Amino acid sequence: MGKVAVGIAVVCGVAVAAAAAVVVHREIKKSARWVKAMEIVQGFEEKCGTPISKLRQVADAMTVEMHAGLASEGGSKLKMLISYVDNLPTGNEKGLFYALDLGGTNFRVLRVQLGGNDIGIVNQQFEEVSIPPSLMTGTSDALFDYIAAELAKFVAQEGVDFQLTPGRQRELGFTFSFPVMQSSIASGTLLRWTKGFSIDEAVGQDVVAELTKAMERQGLDMRVSALVNDTVGTLAGGRYSNNDVVAAVILGTGSNAAYVERAHAIPKWHGLLPKSGEMVINMEWGNFRSSHLPLTEYDHALDAESLNPGEQIYEKVISGMYLGEIVRRVLCRMAEEAAFFGDTVPPKLKVPFILRTPVMSAMHQDTSPDLKVVANKLKDILEISNTSLKMRKVIVELCNIVATRGARLSAAGILGILKKMGRDTIKEGEKQRTVIAMDGGLYEHYTEYRKWLENALNELLGEGVSETIVVEHSNDGSGIGAALLAASHSQYLEMDES
Fold this sequence. Notes:
Elements: H1 3-47, H2 52-71, E1 81-82, E2 94-102, E3 106-115, E4 121-130, H3 133-136, H4 140-156, E5 170-176, E6 180-184, E7 187-190, H5 207-217, E8 222-228, H6 230-241, E9 245-251, E10 255-262, E11 278-282, H7 297-304, H8 313-318, H9 323-338, H10 357-364, H11 372-382, H12 389-420, E12 434-439, H13 441-445, H14 447-466, E13 469-473, H15 477-488, H16 493-497
Parallel strand pairs: 2-5, 5-8, 9-12, 12-13
Antiparallel strand pairs: 1-11, 2-3, 3-4, 6-7, 9-10, 10-11
Helix pairs in contact: 1-9, 1-12, 2-12, 4-5, 6-15, 9-10, 9-12, 10-12, 12-14
């Protein structure tokens, strides 16, 4: 072989070796990145752990806080607000009633025709309206004027199927799903906003008065006869169709719980005890916090950067507003520290709340063999293409970790309520049945979440007791419940009864 040929062979050999070295180096780098990404996921999973022992601690802490919140105002992170609902619907309510359900980024207007004498709901209609984001942080007048205008439009479309008794004013149940200090069944001051709303001038104002003024500005003659929290509305709606309903839990954009308490077990109640001997308590359980909650650095960062740092900690790990955002934060760290999506961090991944919980739910519940839904969601929302099946499986696992933790912690909260009511055990010779009315998009649409919640509750209660506890979906309980409470607190009630 000539010198030139030898030289070319050597150069080629060196080039091949160099190329091979580059490939090996790239593979090692890729492998190291994968190891780092898996470390992040595993570390997160460990910190999110919810063994039964921990869930029992959370449930016990919930019960303790419930007692403290009932004992005195400000005695607990749980407000344990008195709802002034001491008589839940009976089935005898009759007439046309409206409801306005303001609970998050949408609100609903609803009308029901009630037949009375256990006939139930004869007719119902509703419309859903989105709230422009600018109004969520604008002025109080702007928000309530927008709501009142939409309500007036809805009233104008009242058809022949809905009959208002002649000579009567229309009556409305107002579901307002934010912390309110009620002073009667139809008045209450806003304590603080949650779920992305932040209108400072409205805090401390009577929300019924604000709505009434807005309705007057629209020329709408309607009386607010009941101010209801969505969870209290769900409880009322559930009780209307099932007498065994004693508690309600909302799992949607936000989360809350309400239950029926014995009036004499409320030390901070200073008025006359209601004839029924019962009072519905709006727990505002989203604000629960305990050292037993398994919080991670992602949860702490989310809280610190939120509109309400230090508040609604329980809500921030269990509710629909935040689950997708927790997943995004973990993915972002994987992209930054382990180049999970390549050498550059996808710009969209840095946008807070871009990964909404319905998207997370769709990815988590993707049953296609190649996880096509995951691939499409990553591409459409985060503009991330060319993911491998291996990567998509990790993303599904991440969704599973976040959803499982949230669902199991929700179950622990429910156990806390059952303990407070003495319904976590079976008393000998007693045939009790306890129904918890559930509502909210998270519970309704996120099947995996619902499954984990129900499994955890059964596990916590044990075989015997779990057979006496029923978790029942109460669809649109909050809207219908508000209309039912408007009926049971109507200004014409005594007239109808006589």
